[in-house]
Amino acid sequence: MSRRLAALLLVLACSQSQAGPDTTDSADSTDYGARGRAVLDKITGGKTAEAMGAVAETSPELADWIVDFAYGHVVSRPQLDLCTRELATVAALTTLGNARPQLVAHVGGALNAGCKPEAIVEVVTQMAVYAGFPTALNGIAVVKEVFGARGIKAGKM
């Protein structure tokens, strides 16, 4: 577990903004559900209702927690731009090694947030140092899949 935390902290400490800071004034809002939905709309490309609806069918409370707390309270904070947060999320999910559906969603979310494909590949590649080569290879397979679905050529960019 400590190497996963170290990987996440390294990405957060070393990551430079790729898309610029988010200029929305989310820090003053106290409607965390609205803040969460706004951030999720950027990440999901406007498919928040679809993504959260699937969760809410079985656990409405979990869907609310994800939107209100994870995205409304945490991800919407102004201290990091959305691209940096998505790169950190991609790194964390890669190191977990057991969250493939979420990794697929967040590789796409990183692209939606304005992250460069090269940055996504680099973050996943770096995870080989902290989580091992098999974990990084599995992460790269997800990146290749998401990039292929979007017509982005992986490799030398």
Describe the overall structure.
- The protein has 157 residues and is mostly helical.
- The protein has one domain: Up-down Bundle (AhpD-like), CATH 1.20.1290.
- Helix content is 71%, strand content 0%.
- The chain has eight helices and no strands.
- The protein has helices at residues 2-14, 32-44, 48-56, 60-75, 82-96, 100-112, 117-131, 133-150.
- The longest helix has 18 residues, at 133-150.
- The relative contact order is 0.15.
Please estimate the helix content.
Answer: over 70%
CATH architecture group name: Up-down Bundle
pLDDT under 50 segments (min length 5)? 5-27
Shape: globular
Number of distinct beta strands: 0
Which structural class should the secondary elements be placed in? mainly alpha
How many domains make up the coordinates?
1
Going by CATH, the homologous superfamily would be AhpD-like
State the name of the first-level CATH class.
Answer: Mainly Alpha
Q: C-alpha Rg, in Å?
A: 15 Å
In the CATH hierarchy, the third-tier topology is known as AhpD-like
N-to-C order of helices and strands:
HHHHHHHH
The number of distinct helices, counting runs of at least 4 residues, comes to 8
Mean pLDDT: 86
Please describe the biggest sheet, giving its number of strands, its sense, and whether it closes into a barrel.
none
Residue fraction in strands: under 5%
What is the distance, rounded to the nearest whole angstrom, between the alpha carbons of the first and last residues? Answer: 33 Å
